[in-house]
Write a structure and sequence with these properties.
By secondary structure, this protein is an alpha+beta fold. It is built from seven helices and 17 strands. Helices cover 25% and strands 26% of the residues. The strands form six sheets. A five-stranded antiparallel beta sheet has the order 4-5-10-8-9, with helices on one face. Strands 11-16-15 form a three-stranded antiparallel beta sheet. Strand 13 (235-238) and strand 14 (241-244) form a beta hairpin. Bound molecules: flavin-adenine dinucleotide.
Length: 311
């Protein structure tokens, strides 16, 4: 557990990163198939402060060990716009850039100014500006070139001062429409939390890692071929093609009715795999691999896990 700068120095002095290590936040995007054979390093550093502002924006620095939703609440209390749709996503601030967390039409890349930390294993400090993080849908440089090669310890966010809401997501927009010009950050956050609670399991009661798969992006030609064969495919424009809803594809393969031991998809959201009690990691792996195979057989699309599998 790393609580302060002294602990960070000590980790580098002890050359921990020259041996097998695992950086962990809340572990909410991981599936363990066995114990990790090495040092598990969890950030527990605290601190959120306003460090700068200009006419339009306020810059807020948050320690990597801060709870993500506590950070969102800070922005709401200070009447800063941009983070509110992301309230309720489990995890820590230090993990949020890794998969560019997103929900209800917002992504954290839209409010990240810079990411700070240390290159591994030597401990050289780094600062990466937003454009250098190569953010994409549930992706960033931290999952690719810099995977296991950097430790994020602080994130600086750039939030809007002027009232501005992101209401592209239909269900959110519909629920908030009655508020009109009286809409507030508090109301958006409350509505997002209500929608999340109605669709997602309570992680204090059952095991799950949120959306297990990424939504696949297919070419226009592939989409045309699929829509000739299958009615009402949910789809959205994406930068490099058409994004489909993995949950719909999984549900249409019949997975809502398939429970194996303590593993199943969640009844209100087939994209989420749940461990109802004592399923082993290997059982979850067998289950998700069969889901991938059935979607591949029916649609010719390879869906990929969003979750990090620790094998
Ligand atoms: C019920 C539920 C709902 C969810 N809903 C959403 C959602 O709406 N949108 C969404 O995007 N995600 C969602 N998720 C996934 C998850 O909340 C996010 O991926 C979150 O950012 C994970 O945070 P964490 O602290 O638990 O990270 P962990 O799972 O501990 O780690 C995630 C990855 O980041 C790496 N990492 C962690 N800390 C650091 C660090 N300091 N430096 C470098 N690398 C690090 C880890 O090695 C790992 O690869 C959901 C998960 C659950 C369980």
């Amino acid at each position: 557990m790393v609580e302060n700068d002294q602990d960070i120095d000590e980790i580098f002095q002890r050359k921990i990163f020259t041996r097998p290590f695992l950086l962990i936040g809340e572990g909410s995007n991981m599936l363990f198939t066995k114990d990790f054979d090495g040092t598990v390093i969890k950030l527990a550093t605290k601190g959120i402060e306003i460090i700068n502002e200009d006419d339009e924006h306020v810059y807020v620095r948050a320690a990597g060990g801060e709870d993500w939703s506590d950070f969102v609440r800070f922005t709401i209390e200070h009447e800063l716009y941009g983070a509110e749709n992301l309230i309720g996503i489990p995890g820590l601030v230090g993990s949020c850039p890794v998969q560019n967390i997103g929900a209800y039409g917002s992504e954290v890349k839209d409010i990240i100014y810079q990411v700070e930390g240390y290159y591994l294993p030597d401990g050289e400090p780094f600062v990466l500006y937003n454009e250098e993080c190569h953010f994409a849908y549930r992706d960033s440089i931290f999952k690719n070139e810099l995977k296991n090669r950097c430790w994020i310890t602080e994130v600086v966010f750039k939030l809007k001062k002027e009232k501005h809401f992101q209401l592209n997501y239909k269900q959110l927009a519909d629920n908030l429409a009655p508020f009109g010009a009286d809409l507030t950050l508090e109301k958006v956050a409350e509505t997002v939390l209500n929608i999340r609670n109605s669709k997602l399991p309570d992680i204090t009661k059952v095991g799950c890692a949120g959306s297990f798969f990424k939504n696949p992006v297919v070419s226009e030609a592939k989409f045309a071929e699929l829509s000739a064969k299958f009615d009402q495919l949910v789809h959205y424009p994406a930068p490099n093609g058409i994004k489909l809803a993995a949950g719909q594809l999984i549900e249409s393969c019949g997975w809502k009715d398939i429970r194996r031991g303590d593993v199943s998809v969640y009844p209100t959201q087939a994209l989420v795999i749940v461990n109802w009690g004592n399923a082993k990691g290997s059982e979850v792996v067998a289950y998700y691999q069969d889901i991938i195979q059935s979607v591949q057989e029916k649609y010719g699309i390879l869906i990929e896990p969003e979750v990090r599998i620790i094998a």
